[in-house]
Design brief:
heterotrimer; A mainly alpha; B alpha+beta; C alpha/beta; A: mainly alpha; B: alpha+beta; 6 helices
Chain lengths: 330, 177, 753
């Protein structure tokens, strides 16, 4: 028998008996971060590719959500802080080694741009919602009125609209940084064997893009756009599955603690929820449904989209929670 | 100057005096601790082996906690001591996640707290509170850069190990076996 | 049926008391919240003290923080008890002061119209008057001898003085008959002197240390532990005999995992090996010992092979460990242990230990036993004590002829209603000892208390015993009071001062003041003919060549040693025995009708499904005394029952599972205890830390945490020589379901109807 115990009564909150520093805030933050990154990225990408008119939802409409999603993320992040009154300390220094610092600065940069971007499309948005209810129209009108009333604002929106192409490039780059960051945040923690793999960055980026694609798919009114995003999503799901397999192969080929970490998902406590919840419900089933759609079966698009969103959220919750259980000592 | 600590597992009886002494020295709130005792027993009765270790922050050379800190609250001071400035800490928990030794915790006031190698005492030429109190003298503190310091001598003369060397942190608390 | 002296749960009163005070500790005492900057020791105010968390009484300094509040306690470098290093309990002593569960006001027992008992807060005036009145009544009715003092706190010395002035010598400490008595008696019978405390074992210089069930390191006798750590560093060999893989066993060259209750067989066989393989110190034995030939004949058959059949220890290991001792002789110590009341033949077991030391020539030799010296403290001038008509000796010495001091459980028995002889004890003063956990067989103690005319309890904390008091006096902690001078035996004679570092919290008062006030009320003021304790201490210090003022600065004073530490080669030495020699064959024991040489007696082994209950210490606790100390419960807040994995498998119990215990007499534990599955305990035994499972609800951190071993000790094996209460012949079995549920249901039904 091997018995290793702490005998001085250590019972640190959130640390003993198992690490539980991050609760729902961080996984939610990672999820919405990935989602916002995807919305901004797709919009910028297709705009640069000059397909703005063809893929209206992704380029002009869906990015409206991005700032709201980012705000949810920021609120979650703020709620996670145990010393929130000192939040501003994040912006007194840039620390390239710290993904948290990266994230803070990226969000600081992308947040205003994510607001400006849809404002440059205000005319198109107004048009898009022309058949909608009074309230939506009223709201858009109200925003337009404010912009028109404040001259510097009007001028700067006009300036951004002029340089929309360059703005798209900045947005695309920042979106990729944000997306990768959500994965790097975890993989920067060498001390948690489950997170200690470079595959996590690309995996979270792809997963984030997939949730973004799902949202666009769900929102889009055009069948063509839906099909395009179905195909994109299928590709992303395929890459994701490949990465997941790769992840576990990597763990099993590593040291004892990584193998132990992988065991959590290969027979351990997280096996059922991960393979059924994340892989089947979040990836395989939506992939099948999307493929059926491509082959002409009529599937309500909301089903695969919702499943992908649920799967993506669950994936982040599981990774954060399970990662904290894995450790080097005791 | 490179401060380090050695911990003689042969002499330690696990009395936990280092833990209380640290609490009363550093105003560590009850229910929290900056150091702790691990007991490891291996074998089957009556063929047994037991090791007792007084553990704390390893004041690593390669500091994942300092690296992941987004504000610079976690930093390294002279002698390789890792410290946290409470007024710069936002309590994000990144450093706690980054530490393979679980040596950091949230102070009830929100900031992250940890062993400081009693730098306020060391500055005045005293040794740390835990070393000063240890009834078995199993703890030794000193400067690794000084070949004549007690820690340097012990590391030359005795067999030792560090915890979780595979985490790559280059810890500076050495366990004499 | 209502008992005469119903136990009162302090909580009912304390709750009201607490309401007007600060809220109970949450995560930190106030002082920790205010002072974020670490204390600068060089600028801080400090006051000398010596520790009261255990009997080792290490001297140190109490440091105050910027706000003048107690911050920490650090050992005094000049103190040989601690060498400047306190143990966890000493360091955590601050928690005793900051504990908000402390007794706060004098209280008295009041019986309501409906017969319920409760405590009511009273003035000090009324409390002291009531005690004095009751003492007068008892003296008038039965004579002052019928008043007994049971104590373990330092302030007991002032109460002792009060009792003797009042006319009673019926004074006892549980530390004798419940703890170290047998070893004292065993050594007195062999060397003509007891071991006393701190033990004069020269561990600092030893080459071989033999420990019989002595878990040094877990028992945190500071100076002793320090010297053992040094011995480990010097690679001295340690031989540990213990059914449990104790901390020190893990550091020993030989760990002999003995079958419990067979230690004497091992000791006798070691004696056999030393004698028959001619490994003993012949010159030493010839010069100093008496009765070698008788001993040789006595142990003839106690071969290691014979011992193997009793102890389960490989004969080779028995021989090898004996060779190890012989090799180190005379720098070898067979340690007498401290808590030695195990199986009822404990004086004889310690006799075997004493004999073993004599054969190894270690007594009075470097690396063995040194001759300790102690500075005698003068008594403040006071009238001669009256001569009591009878004393504890008249009760105890008839039966237990080897008893050295008062036997607490005998004084308790003298209070039982069935005690028909002329020596009756009718009143108790209890100072700083929770008799309910220290004295085995709680039911007898309870019956004795019911039969008392009066009982006053002095304590700092609500403990089970305080619930039985008629008058309850809150004593301030050692950090808030002066006490008598500590003068202890050591290599160098030394004295230490304890002085207050803070004012007493609430209405608590120092013990010396209570004793003096009671004396005044009894017309015994002449015995306390000083205005303040400072005056008394200063007088004493001046007689010893120092002063209170000097002692307040230095805390500890060392004096020159007058006698040699060791015997020189061949030096004449007179031992205080009948023959003037070390008596391997004890004429004194023989004359009193006991075996002159130790004999092995088979003790009962557990029945199937039962396990021998072994209890012991944890380094962070002193019995039940620290059970509510916030700093120390932070380190350990409950005990667990150690169960061998094989046993756990049979029972299907899992780690951390809560179980109840039932002993051989059907006694069931009040509280459940969590299981620790560990290889560190033998399959036929279970182990738990003593002092937990407190039933006093006034202890917010101590109540109901873990289970009480004392409660499970109903079979007490009395040592026929000195009256010690052997407590290790109790066996427990496990109850996996809550045995109290059914009872609760019945009680509830009764209450409803």
């Amino acid at each position: 028998m091997n018995e290793e115990i702490i005998i001085s009564g250590r019972n640190l909150p959130y640390i003993d008996p198992v690490l539980n520093i991050w609760h729902w805030q961080i996984p939610l933050y990672l999820f919405v971060g990935g989602l916002a990154a995807a919305l901004i990225f797709f919009s910028a990408y297709f705009f640069i590719r000059g397909r703005g008119d063809e893929l209206k939802t992704s380029v002009q409409i869906a990015p409206i959500l991005a700032p709201f999603v980012i705000v949810i993320g920021l609120i979650a992040l703020l709620l996670d802080l145990r010393h929130p009154a000192y939040f501003w300390q994040l912006y007194t220094t840039i620390r390239l080694d710290s993904p948290m610092s990266w994230g803070a600065w990226t969000l600081a940069a992308i947040m205003p741009l994510s607001v400006i971007w849809p404002l440059t499309f205000l005319k198109e948005i107004k048009e898009y919602f022309s058949e909608s209810g009074k309230r939506v129209k009223g709201l858009i009108q109200w925003i337009e009125d404010i912009i028109n009333a404040i001259k510097p604002l009007k001028l700067s929106i006009e300036w951004f609209t002029k340089y929309r192409y360059q703005l798209a490039w900045v947005n695309a780059i920042l979106a990729i940084i944000l997306g990768v960051y959500t994965g790097i945040l975890l993989s920067a923690f060498n001390a948690r064997p489950l997170w200690n793999t470079s595959i996590l960055g690309p995996l979270f980026l792809v997963s984030g893009l997939s949730t973004g694609a799902a949202v666009i798919m769900w929102m889009s009114r055009s069948k063509k756009e839906r099909l395009i995003f179905s195909r994109i999503d299928l590709l992303l799901i395929a890459i994701e599955l490949f990465f997941i397999i790769h992840l576990f192969m990597g763990f099993l080929a590593s040291g004892a603690v990584q193998i132990e970490a992988a065991q959590l998902f290969l027979g351990g406590d997280y096996t059922a929820i991960f393979w059924a919840g994340v892989v089947m419900v979040g990836l395989v089933i939506p992939a099948i449904l999307e493929t059926m759609e491509l082959y002409g079966y009529h599937i309500p698009i909301s089903i695969p989209a919702l499943l992908i969103l649920i799967g993506g959220l669950l994936f982040r919750f599981i990774m954060v929670e399970a990662g904290q259980i894995t450790r080097y000592l005791y | 100057m490179r401060y380090a600590m050695t911990m003689d597992t042969r002499k330690c009886v696990g009395c936990s005096d280092c833990v209380v002494a640290c609490q009363t020295e550093n105003n560590v709130p009850l229910g929290y601790c900056r150091d702790w005792i691990v007991e490891h027993t291996a074998g089957t009765y009556p063929h047994l082996d037991m090791e007792l270790r007084s553990e704390r922050c390893n004041q690593c050379d390669n500091t994942p906690c300092v690296r992941t800190c987004p504000t610079g609250a976690s930093h390294v001071i002279e002698g390789g001591i890792v410290k946290v400035t409470p007024e710069e800490c936002i309590g994000c928990g990144a450093c706690i996640q980054a530490c393979p030794y679980d040596a950091r915790y949230f102070h009830p006031d929100g900031y992250v707290d940890k062993c400081t190698f009693c730098d306020h005492r060391v500055k005045k030429g005293q040794t740390t509170a835990c070393v000063a109190v240890c009834p078995t003298k199993c703890l030794t503190f000193g400067d690794l850069d000084d070949p004549n310091s007690d820690v340097s001598k012990l590391l030359r003369d005795r067999k030792w190990k560090v915890l979780a060397p595979e985490a790559g942190t280059k810890p500076h608390v050495f366990f004499l076996t | 049926m209502k008992t005469r002296r119903e136990f009162i749960k302090i909580s009912a009163v304390a709750a009201g008391g607490i309401a007007v005070l600060k809220p109970a500790l949450s995560w930190s005492p106030d002082f920790l919240k205010k002072d974020i900057e670490p204390l600068d020791e060089s600028k801080a105010k400090r006051y000398p003290t010596f520790c009261e968390v255990c009997f080792w009484k290490c001297a140190g300094f109490t440091y105050l923080n910027k706000d003048g509040e107690i911050q920490k306690i650090i050992g005094n470098d000049k103190d040989p008890h601690c060498n400047g290093r306190f143990c966890p309990r000493g360091t955590g002593g601050v928690g005793m002061y900051y504990d908000n569960d402390r007794l706060k006001f004098p209280q008295k027992r009041v019986v309501d119209g409906d017969g319920t008992h409760k405590f009511v807060q009273i003035s000090w005036e009324e409390a002291l008057d009531t005690i004095a009145d009751n003492m007068k009544d008892i003296a008038d009715k039965y004579g002052p001898e019928s008043m007994a003092l049971l104590y373990h706190a330092s302030s007991g010395s002032y109460f002792k003085h009060l009792m003797q002035a009042y006319g009673s010598k019926n004074i006892a400490k549980p530390s004798y008959a419940q703890c170290l008595g047998p070893r004292e008696a065993g050594f007195v019978a062999t060397y003509g002197m007891g071991v006393s405390s701190p033990e004069p074992t020269d561990i600092k210089n030893t080459e071989c240390l033999v420990l019989i069930g002595n878990h040094v390191g877990e028992n945190m006798h500071n100076g002793y532990v320090q010297e053992v750590a040094d011995a480990i560093e010097r690679n001295a060999s340690i031989i540990t005999v213990d059914p449990r893989f104790s901390t020190i066993a893990s550091k020993s060259k030989f760990w002999l995992p003995i079958k419990p209750a067979t230690d004497l067989a091992l000791l006798l066989s070691w004696i056999h090996v030393l004698i028959y393989e001619e490994l003993y110190d012949k010159k030493y034995v010839e010069q100093y010992a008496f009765g070698f030939d008788e001993l040789k004949a006595h142990v003839k058959n106690f071969t290691p092979e014979w011992a193997y059949t009793k102890t389960d220890i490989d004969p080779k290991d028995i021989r090898d460990s004996a060779y190890e001792m012989a090799k180190a002789s005379p720098a070898v110590i067979v340690h007498p242990g401290r808590h030695t009341t195990w199986y009822g033949d404990d004086t004889q077991r310690t006799r075997a230990i004493a004999i073993l030391n004599a054969l190894l020539g270690s007594f009075g030799k470097k690396g063995g036993w040194y001759f300790a010296e102690k500075k005698s403290v003068p008594h403040f001038p006071s009238p001669e004590y009256p001569h009591p008509k009878w004393t504890w000796k008249d009760i105890t010495k008839k039966t237990y002829k080897g008893a050295g001091t008062g036997i607490s459980n005998d004084l308790i028995k003298a209070s039982l209603p069935e005690n028909k002889n002329e020596h009756k004890v009718k009143g108790w003063i209890v100072v700083g000892t929770n008799l309910m956990t220290t004295i085995p067989d709680v039911e007898t103690t309870k019956r004795a208390i019911e039969n008392l005319d009066f009982i006053a309890v002095v304590d700092t904390m609500p403990m089970e015993i305080t619930g039985y008091a008629d008058i309850l006096l809150p004593e301030c902690t050692y950090l808030e009071r002066y006490d008598d001078i500590r003068s202890s035996q050591h290599r160098i004679p030394n004295i230490a001062l304890r002085m207050p570092a803070a004012n007493p919290r609430w209405e608590s008062k120092p013990g010396w003041w209570m004793a003096k006030e009671i004396a005044n009320r009894l017309g015994l003021g002449d015995y306390f003919a000083y205005d303040s304790v400072e005056e008394e201490l200063d007088w004493k210090f001046k007689q010893m060549g120092t002063s209170l003022e000097e002692m307040q600065k230095i805390g500890v004073k060392q004096f020159d040693k007058e006698t040699d530490l060791y015997l020189a080669d061949g030096e004449e030495h007179y031992f205080n025995t009948d023959t003037g020699k070390i008596e391997l064959y004890s004429l004194d024991l023989e004359a009193k009708g006991y075996d002159p040489m130790p004999k092995f007696i088979e003790h009962k082994q557990p029945d199937s499904g039962f396990y021998r209950l072994i209890y012991g210490r944890a380094p962070m606790h002193t019995f039940g005394r620290t059970i509510n100390n916030p700093n120390l419960t932070d380190l350990m807040d409950e005990n667990k029952i150690w169960v061998n994995p094989k046993v756990a498998k049979i029972w299907g119990v899992e780690a951390e599972q809560e179980i109840w215990l039932k002993n051989q007499d059907g006694k069931i534990s009040t509280f459940p205890i969590k299981v620790r599955i560990t290889e560190r305990i033998r399959h036929d035994s279970v182990y738990m830390i003593h002092g937990f499972g407190n039933t006093e609800k006034g202890l917010s951190r101590g109540y109901g945490r873990g289970a009480s071993d004392s409660e499970m000790i109903t079979n007490v094996k009395i040592d026929p020589i000195m009256g010690g209460t052997g407590m290790r012949e109790n066996f427990v079995t496990f109850l996996l379901e809550n045995p109290h549920l059914e009872e609760n249901k019945i009680e509830n039904k009764e209450a409803e109807s």
